[in-house]
Structures are given as C-alpha cells and as structure tokens.
Sequence to fold (847 residues):
Amino acid sequence: MNIKENLKKILIEELNLEDLTAEEIEDDAPLFGEGLGLDSLDAVELVVLLEKHFGVEVKNLDEGRAAFQSINTLVAFIEERLVQ
Amino acid sequence: MEAFVQGIGIVGGFGTGMEAFSSTLATGLSETQVVTVQTPDGAKEMPAFLADTSGLEAFVEKKTLRRMDHYSRMALLGAYLALENAGILNIDRRRLGIVVASGYGASRSTCAFLDSFIDGNDAFSSPTHFSNSVHNAAAANISITLGVTGPCLTVSQFEMSVPSALISAIEWLKEGRVEKVLFGAVDEYSDILGYCWHRFHGHQKGIVVDPFLFHEQTAILGEGAAFFLLSLEQETGTSYGRIEDVNTQCTDGFECPDADQTVFILGADGNKSWGQQYERYVTKNIRIASYTPLYGSFPTNMAFDMAAAFSSFRIGKIYAPAAGISCLSSLNIIKEEQPLDVEKICCLKLASKGESGAITITHG
Amino acid sequence: MRQRIPAAITGVGCICGVGGTLGECIETLFEGRRNPLPPLRFTSTHDVRYPVFEVPEAAIRPELKNTDHISLTSKLAITAAYEAFIDAGLEIHEVKGKKVGVCIGTTVGSVMNDLPFYAEFHKGGTPEIGAINRFLRSNPSALIAREFGLTGPCQTVVNACSSSTDAIGIGASWIQSGLCEMVIAGGADELSLVTYNGFISMMIADENPCKPFDRDRKGLNLGEGSAILILESEHSWVQRHKTPRAIVLGYGSSSDAHHLTAPHPHGEGLKRALIEAMSFSGAKLDEIAFVNAHGTGTPDNDRVESKVLSELLPGVPFVSTKGYTGHTLGAAGAIEAAFTVACLERSMIPGNAGFANPDPDLPATPAKIPTVVKGSMAISQSLAFGGCNGVLIIGNRGG
Fold:
C-alpha cells in the first residue's frame, strides 16, 4: 500500500470516518473546516497518528498547518520527512 | 424539596425508551447478552445487560456521533428520549441545566487512553480518547449537541451518585438558576469492570438476579442511562409525578423509616456486600419491591429504580417482581402485581460502607 | 431572587506546589517565587521533560505519608481539611455525627487509572485488586465524611477544570437553602502520568515554565494540591463565636455548548457565568477588587479570558496564579478561591508569575508585580474542558 492509500485508511479508521471510503476522500479537498470537516481535536490526533504510523514528528501546530491542508499536502509532508 | 418529572428517557439491557421499560417491568422478563472476561483461569463468558444506542440515529446525524464514545452516546440518547417523552424537543436551551450522575465515568475511553501509551511510548497518547475519558464528557456532549448553555454538573459518588446529584439538580431549580433540569445517570460496562467483577465475585453461578437473597452473590453487571426532565412547576399533560424528598449520606447511621403509606423499591441488586446492609436496616414494617433483575448492577441503577417508581404511578399499579426470583425472605416483599394503594414510593439504595440514599416519589 | 442565607467562609486550608499551608503558599506568591521542575514521582518517554508543580511528600499529614491505603488525591484533601478545621477553630467532636455536607471537586481522584494494575491487565494478565480497593476507598467527599464522621450529603464534582469552583458554589447553595449549616467544600487532584500524557497529546503543555497571558505563552504546566473551605451559616458561626474570613456572595455557571476541548472563541459561556454570579450577588463593577483568572497559559484560554475581562470588567486588576501552582485541574478552583480569600484580606494581589511581555492580541493584561487593590469583593473563575464555566464572587467579611 502506498503512503496515500495507507494515510486514507488510517484517517478513516482512527478518526472514525465510518461512512467514508478511501475513494470518496478527494486528494485535494480541504481536510479541516469544510471538505472532510475535521477540527482542532482531530488535528492533534493527526499529529499522534503521523508519529505512530509514519514515524514523522510534528513539533507544533504552526508547522502542521500547511501540511494538513489536504491529503496531497500531507503525503508530500510525510515523504519529505521520511527522506530526512 | 420538590421537583416534577415531565419526561423520562431510558436505555439499558432491556431496550430503549419508557414504553419498552414499562413493558419489561410488566412481563418481568429481560434478556442478557454475553461478555467475555479475562480471568486467572483463562477467558470466561459471563452474562451482562448491555445497552444499544442505535436509537440515537433518530435524533442526530451519524457524523455528529463520530467521536462520541459509548458512555456519551448512552447519556445523549437518554437525554433526547427524555425531551421527546416530555413532548418538548424544542425546549429553551438557555434556561436548561444538565446534571449527570455516574459511578465509574467513561470507563472504556479511560482504558482506551491508557491502551494508547501503556506499551511504552508516551508520544502515542491519543488526545481524542483523553478528551472522552473525562467524567464530564457525557454532560458536555449533551450540552454541545443540544446547544444547552445553562449550567452542567457531573457527580461521581459511586452508588450514591444519583441521590447526591439529584440534590444539586433540585437546588438549581429552587435557586431559579434554571427553569428545567435534564437530570440523568449513566454507567457503562467495560472489559476492566468485567475483570474486576470476576476477581471480586468469582464465576457467575446462575443467570437470575435474586435481590432478596441478601447473603448470596447473584448480581449481573449492567449498564445504561436514565434521564428525567425536572421542573419546579407542574406542567399539564405529561407529568409522571413529583420527587418529594432526597436524602443521602456516606457514613453509617441510616434509619429505616416506618411508613405505611409508602412502598420501598430497594436498590438491592444481588450484590452480597450491600445485600447485607439491607438486611441490617430494612424491617418487616415496610413493603418492599425490587426490579434490578431486569437491568442489572451498576452504581447508578437507582435511576432505573426511579423510572420504575414513576412508571408505577403512571399506570396505577405496583409491578410484580421479576420472573424467577425467590421471595423467601421474612420481609414484607410485594410478590405480585397489585393496585398502587399508597401515596409514595421510596427508592432506597444502601452500599457496603454504610452509605445510604433515599428518593421519595409521589403523585404529581 | 428569593432571600437566601449567606454562606460564610470560616476556615481555609491549602496545600500545593507553593506550600503546605495557605500561609506558606501566600508568602511564596507575594515573594514571586515558583519552582516548576520535571516530575520526580513518575518518568515518561517523551523527549522533553515538561515542568510540573509537585507537592513534596513532607507536606502531607504525617500519618498519611508512606501509606497506600488511599489515593494521593485523598491524602491531599485530608491534609487541607485538617488545616481548614484548625483555621475555623473547629474541634472534630463538634462536627462528628452532624449533618455537615461535603462537596469536593476532582478529576484524577475519581478515575480508576492505576498504571501498574492496568499495564498487567493490558498484557492479558490478571493483576491483584489492591489498586481497585484503594480506588473504591478514595472518593474524596466520602473519605472526608468518614474521616470526620459527617452525616450530611456527599458530592464529588467531576467537572474537569472547573470542578472545585463548582463544588464551592454548590456547597454554598446548600447553606443558602438551609439544607446544611456547615459544608466542607473544595477540591483535590494529584499529578499523574495519565493527565501529563493527556495534556501533552493535546499540544497544550509548555516545555518551559508556563507564562499565563504572556505574548510567548505556549501552554500549561500541570500541578497538584488541594484546598478546603469550611462554609457555614450565620447561625452556626455566631453560635461558635467565630468570625468569618469571607463570604461566598455569588456563583455563576454556564456552558459554552461549543466544543469538547476548545473554549468558545468569544467566551460566551464565561460572560454568562460572570453576569449570573454578579446578579446572584448583587455586586457592582466598582466593588470588584480583582479577578483571580483561570489563566492556564494556553493560547486559546488566555485570549478568550482577556477578551471577556476587558469587556465585562474593564480596568479591574487580574492575575493568574497558575504560574506558581501549575494547573491543578480539579483542585484549581478551590486553591484559587483560597488565594482569593487571602488576597482580599490583605487588599493585594501577587504578580502574575510567568508574565513578562503583553500580547498585542490580548486587550487586557494582568498585574505584573504585587499590586494594591481596592474593593470589598473579588472574583475567582474557571473554564473547563467540555465548556463548563464557573465563577465565584467572594466578599470580605465586612462585605
């Protein structure tokens, strides 16, 4: 499974997005606010999930803000950190 | 001290809603599910009364419930059912308070939070499970989902949670702090509770709770939520009756009232450690009933006893005890269904360290 | 509102990171001293060692030290209760068997989260239930009632961070309505790896000593402790020839109905609670000497509180004492009420520890140094997870 597929699976399972399938999560749609409708509590949960499943650390939410825009930005963030 | 009850919402092992609850009281039959418990002798199966919260989908969109755990879902369902039962789902949320009593709080989320880091990596601690694990999460979720901006209170006093919290709910009404209170109780089953239960009591012998066999351990674990819409004024139509008096203390010294115009619903639920307290205090002078075999043992099951009392007033009958229990005790046990021939029903809860709680209910 | 009996405060006990008694705490506050350190009692695998405010074992009542039959939360509560009794001039025999109520706020104190027990269970083991028995013995209100032989109602309030503000407000209402002549009200909470991990996971803990209301604030530090107030009716303290230290004049409580963990962005719940407390007490703005703010040091809380204070209480000095004590969760409201009583008595508030530079986004700034205050009343307020807002208005004994 590639990073994108894995990430979507993790979001669905761990954030309890029960009625969504991976296909229904658009890669460029906003994750927070509209789009998927995630909020501040999901944001900090996402920080933990990134550490747990990808070994990627987010030191503060300012750092995370740009990365958390969409699936694509998240995947790019993970890939960049994995290379380091 | 008094408050009128306009609506009741209840969910537990018997099913969902006052109609199902009253029907269960009338038939004396209620089914358990099976849970698996970790024991020193391997995994064992045990009966438990478990609540199903799928009824919530009639009130809220599924996505609203996304992060909500079982504890909060039971409470939220109880709250919605109480408002629906009172016929006022569109109640003024600004002058409404929420009071929740819980013995053990959000037990499953507490464990889920511990699970997230106990294997040795604190950085994996889940903020979602942490937020859900605080006792007041149920009251908070009711407040947020219903848009209630009055005061919220959550009380945790083990078996005395219900009478203790009820005192404060009624104080709020008397003070004029709120116009109505959604007063409720919620406790959930969890694996850790099942484990502790088994360590304390050993393997369940039968599957019938026998509350009047005070020296025997026959309790079955249960869970559920029961909510009551309280107001200071009686409103026409739906009132179930009135809470006339509430008393509780955590020290020894309970005196059994000698009351011939009162039937007592005992919170005896098959637990030997407080069964023996009932034996100490309850005398032949009082007429007693118990319905805990229909919903099981959990710290706040006194709220279910209250619902049974209000149901009795509604239909004008005292329900027969649950099917299969023995009434061999020399006490004055009500053995079959009969007309409600008294002014008051007193719900009485005693616990192992001598704690006592008494809630007296009467006609509206 | 109908006439109600005022609830006087006749005795106060306090134990927390700045002292083992109220007197010690207040002295430390006015000297501007604080001692945040990494936790000693537990270890964690986080890279960073977040500062906390632990209570040294030496400060706990001697007969409770080195025992494990009750929780640390309960030991803290009992220690503070005994100090409050002595302060109130009460002998135990005077209250034994009496209908004295107990109303205590806590969070950790009501949760079964013994880690060694759970770790073994989690691995599929079958741990011994000593920890469970300890938990069942340790409900703070029930324990205090049993310690002193009290027969009034017991209530352990578990409203997260506003628990003991609410406990004091509720205890006061039991006096006001005539339900009890005396109530032991307050709060207690112990530090725990569980809450430590919880707040760090929410990314609202500061890696450095916290800076309430400061431009560079990053979050809270946790603390532990207890404070107990003896609340009495006039009939009771007159009969005992005891002069109250202060009076609970009003209590307001309101919900944000907004989010499980974030406060309402405009502080709507806090505003309603403040207005309600002022209304119940009949207090006027110019009578308010100061506010003991919730001031945890998190970006959100302090922004919201500063906004509300500047709107509803413009020009009224305020201070967060959490820079000295850390956030003591269920004990915070009571500890801060205890500090409020002491500060009213000396007509001074300490400087806001941790505050150095104002945040341009915050319309109101706290007292930076010890400040003389004028007025016969003060406010102590708390904002909790889940959106509970609790506000107490405490008046000096002449007020």
The mean pLDDT of chain C is 96. Chain C has 13 helices and 14 strands. Chain C touches chain B through 75 residues (CB under 8 Å). The radius of gyration of chain C is 20 Å.
